[in-house]
Amino acid sequence: MDIFLVLVVFFLLLPFSGCRSKRATSADIPDFFEGNGNRVENGAVSLTEHPYFVPERSDFMKQRKKELQSLMGDTATVEFTAYGDTLKMTMLSSVLFLDNSSTLKRGTESVLQKIRSFLQNNKLNMNVFVYTDSLGVAEYNLLLTEKRAKSLSLSFFPAQDSVKSRNVFVGKGAENPVGDNSTEKGRLRNRRVLFLIAR
Questions:
Q1: Are 90 and 196 in contact (CB under 8 A)?
Q2: What is 142-196 written as a DSSP string?
Q3: Average pLDDT over residues 12-17
Q4: pTM, to two decimals
């Protein structure tokens, strides 16, 4: 009976315990987090699933969202993640890479330079995740995305650049599809590069 009363008091007080999001920084973004707010990794539920989670979005990042979308045009979509003050920019892999290759397309440097300047001018950091569809061998798909992630890393930041250590580039293979892999349209959506951008 005593335990029951303790639990009742606990749940009554929980809404007043100050469970609110803090402003996200790049260090707060787990390497498995994609901004959907519903991920579970190794049995740990994302904080955004807490019933009292309220994302905080600063005027600064709201303005950066508009700026980045304008900068990228129709080559990318920019939105807020469910994780507070973090932006999620998605680009199709076909915009950046040759088909079935980790080689960047001709002219891609100008696109990457826009992103690099945007980050530097606004003192922002990013985590980058590269994905593919589920066709073919899983090991090959993973290796392809890892090579693509490395190509992007080397293009964004010279190997000796200390800034590189604050920006993560990861190949994820066919993990976490956003489209139906049984259709060409869905597979196209899954072949993507995801940029998570935060202060």
A1: no
A2: HHHHHHHHHHHHHHHS-TT-GGGGGSEEEE-TT-S-SS-TTSHHHHHHHSEEEEE
A3: 47
A4: 0.74
